[in-house]
Amino acid sequence: MNTGNWVQLGPVQTWYAEFGDGDPLVFLHPGGVDAWALEPTVAGLASTLRVYTPERRGHGRTPDVEGPGLSTELTFAAMAADTIAFIEQVVGGPTRLAGCSDGGVVALMVALQRPDLVERLACVASVFHRDGWGGGMSGQTERSDFVRRLDDMHSADPALTPADLAELSVRTMVMIGDDDEVSIEHATEFYRSLPVAELAVVPGTSHGLLVEKPALCNALLLDFLTRDAVQTFAPIRRV
Q1: Can you tell me the distance from the alpha carbon of 85 to that of 91, in angstroms, rounded to the nearest whole number?
Q2: pTM of this structure
Q3: How far apart are CA 99 and CA 208, in angstroms?
């Protein structure tokens, strides 16, 4: 990965890196980690796309927002607003957008709020409602203040509904591992609630599917992000 860049997004001094050439893709990392977690994915996608990997507030090199009310600033809504500003200021126009785990939640919220900025959306190992987490999002006895704030965020959000998803016009891929923290039932409801969607269940993987089977995941993502949908022979849902 490169040494990175900085951009001021409102109150947040945001670190990001960019790789490759081609059409833009903003890829949002999971919660509690930084953009290095996406290295196997970026390596596979940057051969075709120009990939941007911003680190969200309080993650990696991007600091928390200073000042009163700090504990209320680590929210999906705040990070979605930051991401919208990033697309407008750094990318400068519509982009493909993807995210993993918490990053997928943020990406979904961006697409719902600003579909004009999102050409295609990939939500990897993520949920539209907090009840979709099957387990593993908490459970640490000794928790840092940051982990505690993430737990507070996960206990409240996201709280989107199938009716909210039905309003999204952006072509979307929902991808999970077959042994993911996201339940298969939730991923199926996620997929079925979207007007224009595709579903990928990666066999033999967990919540870490992007690292566990990078070649397969990258192939699925590239196919979705760079090619038009095919005309299927026996459609049921896509009649």
Answers
A1: 10
A2: 0.93
A3: 13
